[in-house]
Structures are given as C-alpha cells and as structure tokens.
Amino acid sequence: MKSLSSKQKKWLLSFHLLFDGILLGESVVIVIVSIAALSATSREVLQACYLIMNLIARTGIRASMIGTVLTGILLSVLTRWGLFRYYWIMVKEGLTLLSIGIGVIGFYVWSFRGLTMISAEGLEALHNPVFQVNTAALWTGIALQIMSLAGMTVISVFKPWGSRGH
After folding, report:
1. Where exactly are the transmembrane stretches of this chain (predicted)?
2. At what angle are helices 6-38 and 60-77 packed, to 10 degrees?
3. Which of 60, 66, 68, 155 could cross-link to 19 by cystine, CB 3.0-4.6 Å?
4. What is the distance between the alpha carbons of residues 91 and 15, in angstroms, rounded to a whole number?
5. Which residue, among 128, 156, 146, 140, has the nearest Cα to 23 in the 3D structure?
6. Cα–Cα distance between 4 and 155 in angstroms, integer?
C-alpha cells in the first residue's frame, strides 16, 4: 500500500487533531451545560440545558467522532504505525470504542431521557429517582469521556508500551 508523503501526513494529522479538539471541546461544553442544569431553578432553563446537550450529542459529537476515527484509521493504515503493530495504538483503539459508546450513544440517550422527564414532570423530575440515576449516568459518562479523550492525547504524545514484535 502506498504511504503518505510528509506533507500529506501533516495535513491528515492536522485534520485528525482538529476533529479531536472539536470533540474534546464539545465534551467540555456538555460539562458546562450539565453544571448549569444542576443549578437550574426553572423548568425552562433545565429543559434548555438538556435540549442543548441532546443537540450536541445528535450533531457535533457524531460529526467530530466520525472525522476523528476516519483520520485516525487513515493515519494508522497509511503510515508505519499500522492498526495492530503497537500496544499504544491498540489502547487508543479501545479508548476510541469507549468514547464512541459514551459520546455517540450515551450522551444522546441520557440527554433524551432527561429531556423527556423534564417535559413531562418539570422541576419535579429533579426528585424522580429515575432522573437522578440518569443524571448520575450522565456525569459518569462525562468523566469517562474526558478521561478517555485526554488519555488518548497523552498516549499519542508519549507513545508508551512499544511494538508487539513480529
């Protein structure tokens, strides 16, 4: 298979980092909006917070995740790194699967459930045990998402664990 020139690799890496930065930024926005939801004192604000999280999950996170994954695969396949040649790349692949599950599926489901309960119950949803479990799942997902994205960045810089051998 033909490998990339130095200039092509730099462009592809630039797009990969751009998509990854957007994805991390969207996750931080979900943190900020989730904090706002915790302190909401009106139905409208609480509903708006969950609507924003759901919109980000349905659009931006999906698009940036697709861009990040596609450019990451191309970087692996079209360079000397390969998909399974190094342990650090395989760890990144596992973290990517976790990130897809949380970002694409989890954030959508948790924000949609919260939005549905708020629409039906208003601020009373805050006292509903199902809503509280949903909120706990959302916060767990947020923490795991931020840690996995940050972890992938650190792993990419340090490239620990070496080659799997031949």
Report:
1. 12-40, 60-83, 95-116, 136-158
2. 150
3. 68
4. 21
5. 146
6. 22
Q: How far apart are the first and last CA of the chain?
A: 19
Domain range summary for the chain, segments of one domain joined by +: 6-158
Other beta carbons within 10 angstroms of residue 123's beta carbon come to 14
**43-69 confidence digits (pLDDT tens):** 999 999 999 999 999 999 999 999 999
Cα 33 to Cα 109: distance, rounded to the nearest angstrom: 16
94: pLDDT strictly greater than 90: yes
Task: State pLDDT tens for residues 111-125.
Answer: 999 999 999 999 999
Q: What interhelical angle do 87-100 and 60-77 show, nearest 10?
A: 160
Distance CA 105, CA 97 (A): 11
Q: What average pLDDT does the structure give for the chain?
A: 95
Residue 86: beta bridge partners?
163
Specify whether the CB–CB gap between 16 and 78 falls below 8 A.
Answer: no
Interatomic CA distance for residues 53 and 161, integer angstroms? 36
What sign results for the dihedral spanned by CA atoms 23, 25, 29, 34? positive
**Residue 33 token pair:** 């909006």
